[in-house]
Amino acid sequence: MIGKYLMAHPKIGNKAPAFSLKNQNGEKVSLKDFAGKKNVVVYFYPKALTPGCTTQACGIRDTQQELADRDTVVLGLSPDPVDKLGKFIDKHELNFDLLSDEDHAIADKYGVWALKKFMGKEFMGIVRTTFIIDKESRLVGIMDKFKTKTHHEDLIEFLDENLS
Q1: Does the active-site annotation cover 58?
Q2: What is the C-alpha to C-alpha distance for residues 7 and 42, in angstroms, rounded to an integer?
Q3: Which residues contact 147 (CB under 8 A, 6 or more apart)?
Q4: pTM, whole model, 2 decimals?
Q5: In the predicted model, is pLDDT for residue 53 greater than 60?
Q6: How confident is the model over 96-116, as a mean pLDDT?
């Protein structure tokens, strides 16, 4: 039952909602840090160190060079605390920043905090969604229907078709 409390995603073509969050090292990372320099992929995932999220993160890790070749940086956001993000990075040798959105304020801004249902229980959580932001900080794409196993391939394909 996703959608009951789902807010609307930001509109494609508009400026992406700004944010400034702590990464796995406790350092602040802001969307504006990349303006004019890099395309930014902001992907929201439910929980560090879980099977689907690990599969998705490792795919991104393994395509870092291809993403860099496309002037693109990836930021993973979840409601996990900073220390758990550090463990996720270390355990899977991730080579990109994970940001802590513990109060899910940024997830709310992007419309990905919603009522979910799993094994008969309802709870509020992150709906796995990826936002692609160009160098002018404009939202150019939203990916919300993909498999964690092929997310990185779908992402590269989107970048090639829309930001080349």
Answers
A1: no
A2: 17
A3: none
A4: 0.93
A5: yes
A6: 95
Q: Domain spanning 20-162: which superfamily?
A: Glutaredoxin (3.40.30.10)
pLDDT band at 2 (very low <50, low <70, confident <90, very high): very low
- DSSP 8-state code for residue 35: T
Tokens 């160190």 locate to 49
CA distances from 146 to 42, 137, 153 (A): 15, 24, 10
Placement of tokens 């160098």 in the chain: 135
Residue in 53, 75, 99, 112 annotated catalytic? 53
* Count of helix runs (H) and strand runs (E) in the chain: 5, 9
Q: Which residues contact 100 (CB under 8 A, 6 or more apart)?
A: 21, 22, 23, 78, 79, 80, 81, 82, 85
Token pair 């395309």 is found at 39
Domain residue limits, the chain: 20-162
Q: Give the strand pairing for 72-78 and 39-44.
A: parallel
